[in-house]
């Protein structure tokens, strides 16, 4: 037999759903894990071990984070702009 919860009690399941025992409806659950959205094709989502957080990583190497967006990725031949200061 599984765990018994009282009316109004909540819990997080092993697959990262937060559930609550409701009357008269029974149990309601929602996905609890935070997930990035709108990431490029060369990335994929993986869940951090032991947590409900997902991160975007490079498909070719899951040890590397997926960086995208403005100023995040630059072609190797184009150096980053340098700031000029006048005193």
Summarize the structure in short.
Belongs to the beta-microseminoprotein family. The protein has strands spanning 10-12, 17-22, 26-31, 43-47, 54-58. The chain is mainly beta.
What is the strand and helix layout of this fold?
Blueprint: E1 10-12, E2 17-22, E3 26-31, E4 43-47, E5 54-58
Antiparallel strand pairs: 1-2, 2-3, 4-5
Description:
The radius of gyration is 22 Å and the shape is elongated. The N and C termini lie far apart (75 Å). With 87 residues, it is an all-beta fold. The protein has strands at 10-12, 17-22, 26-31, 43-47, 54-58. The strands form two sheets. The protein has a three-stranded antiparallel β-sheet with strand order 1-2-3, with no helix packed on it. The chain has a two-stranded antiparallel ribbon with strand order 4-5. The model is unreliable at 73-87 (pLDDT under 50). The protein has two domains: 1-32; 33-74, N-terminal domain of TfIIb (Single Sheet), CATH 2.20.25. It contains no helices and five strands. Helix content is 0%, strand content 29%.
Q: Which series of helices and strands comes N to C?
A: EEEEE
Q: At CATH's second level, what is the architecture of the largest domain?
A: Single Sheet
Estimate what percentage of residues fall within beta strands: 25-35%
* Main beta sheet strand tally, sense and closure: 3 strands, antiparallel
What's the shape? elongated
GO cellular component, one term: extracellular space
Family: Belongs to the beta-microseminoprotein family.
Subcellular location: Secreted
InterPro entries: PSP94
């Amino acid at each position: 037999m599984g765990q018994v919860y009282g009316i109004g009690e909540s819990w997080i399941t092993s697959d990262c759903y937060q559930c609550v025992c409701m009357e008269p409806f029974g149990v309601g659950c929602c996905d609890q894990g935070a997930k990035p959205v709108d990431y490029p094709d060369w990335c994929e989502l993986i869940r951090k071990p032991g947590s409900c957080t997902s991160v975007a990583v490079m498909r070719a190497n899951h040890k590397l984070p997926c960086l995208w967006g403005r100023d995040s990725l630059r072609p190797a031949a184009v150096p980053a702009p340098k700031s000029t200061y006048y005193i």
